[in-house]
Amino acid sequence: MERIVDIESYRSVGRFFQVYDRPVKALVSEILSLGSYPRKIKIKTPIGRQEVTLYSVADFSTLNLVFCRQDYLAPKSFETVVDIGSNIGLSSLYWLTRNPASFVYAYEPSPFSMERLRENLQGFEDRYNAKPAAVSDFSGQAQLGIEASGVYSSLDLVSANSVTCECMHINDVLEEALTERGFIDILKVDSEGHELRSIKAIDPSFWPYIACVNTDARGCGEFIPKVFQRTIVSSAERFYNKPSQPKIYSPLGQVATN
Description:
258 residues, alpha/beta, Rossmann fold, 3-stranded mixed beta sheet, 9 helices, 29% helix, 26% strand
């Protein structure tokens, strides 16, 4: 019943008809958790049909949250995305298929999910940079607890299945993107428990060069400058930085291009 209520709360049921060739079947599958996995699904995007491989009911729900509910809705003119917690690449695929100019920095610490991400992003190799790393408020090695579906794997998860992974400090992540691109249109942080830690640790000097923050955790607004306007899509929060203003490019990028 909770899934049905959740589906009805979407303002996006109609988008199932835009994303799927058989939208009613997709909607019923979401509500009733139907389907066998792994399986390949074709979806419609602004740049043409794309095929994705899903490995669980949780992956199918994620696909619908991203492409139908549009948790990470972006303006057509965006270019640079930092995707922290990319999982099997569905959020990255969403941004890569919005327009041909987008570029995604994807971070995913699970080796299993990273392998699946690369499969789902085939054909976009020149438009994304994927790193097998977690992101938080520290750098170094960490233990990643692996959850069965892969969706909820976390540095905070105590699991019999765990792997050692690299963890990058969020400021190092942002500095790399700003050095190479000069501006970050979208910063998405979905790190299963480390969202607040990461956002709180962002160097204040970086904020003028970030246009939008998407996060799957509540309470991040306390650590985001007040010039950002907050909106909510179900469990996701979105913060826009003075959307009517032109981009101001980071001097890191200007130095890098001189």
